[in-house]
């Protein structure tokens, strides 16, 4: 590849990694998985690609010293790391078992998040439950905010993911 082609390539995979990261947050909210597993995937893939492709990155951009290591490290983590992590999450989510099971969990803690831009006053209630020994935060629509203190339980429809991490299908407040 020429220098110009490599610059286009690096920019493209960076934007792809950032786009997939935003999509991954939505999938993460519906998956019971420990964050440390995802961070581990991002770091391992980022470090491996750093070792494999660092010389090409150095030939492409005119950075020297610590700046070269910093920018290339960020490139590999944000692009290859997030792409690999997204592939892992999407495979677990979309190749999950077809039949869900229904389970009820007691609400451990309540809080809320601000709404989106221009709708900050529409707060979204969040409920934390103890899901098989792990604390999982569930985010609901702002319609539930006014009565959030009246709910005691969350009923979940759960499917087993491809890699064994549970997927939340439907969630209802009781």
From TrEMBL:
Record key words, sorted: Membrane, Transmembrane, Transmembrane helix
Sequence intervals crossing the membrane: 7-26, 32-55, 76-95
Protein's name in the database: Uncharacterized protein
Organism listed in the record: Winogradskyella rapida
């Amino acid at each position: 590849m020429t220098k110009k082609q490599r610059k286009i390539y690096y920019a493209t995979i960076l934007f792809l990694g950032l786009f997939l990261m935003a999509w991954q947050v939505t999938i993460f909210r519906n998956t019971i998985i420990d964050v440390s597993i995802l961070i581990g995937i991002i770091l391992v893939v980022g470090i491996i690609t750093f070792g494999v492709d660092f010389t090409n990155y150095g030939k492409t951009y005119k950075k020297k010293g610590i700046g070269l290591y910093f920018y290339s490290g960020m490139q590999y983590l944000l692009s290859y790391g997030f792409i690999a992590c997204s592939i892992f999450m999407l495979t677990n989510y979309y190749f999950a078992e077809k039949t869900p099971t229904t389970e009820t969990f007691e609400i451990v803690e309540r809080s809320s998040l601000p709404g989106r831009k221009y709708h900050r006053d529409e707060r979204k209630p969040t409920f934390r439950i103890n899901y098989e020994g792990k604390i999982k935060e569930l985010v609901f629509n702002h319609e539930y905010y006014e009565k959030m203190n009246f709910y005691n339980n969350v009923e979940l429809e759960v499917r087993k993911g491809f890699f064994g991490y549970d997927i939340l299908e439907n969630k209802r407040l009781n």
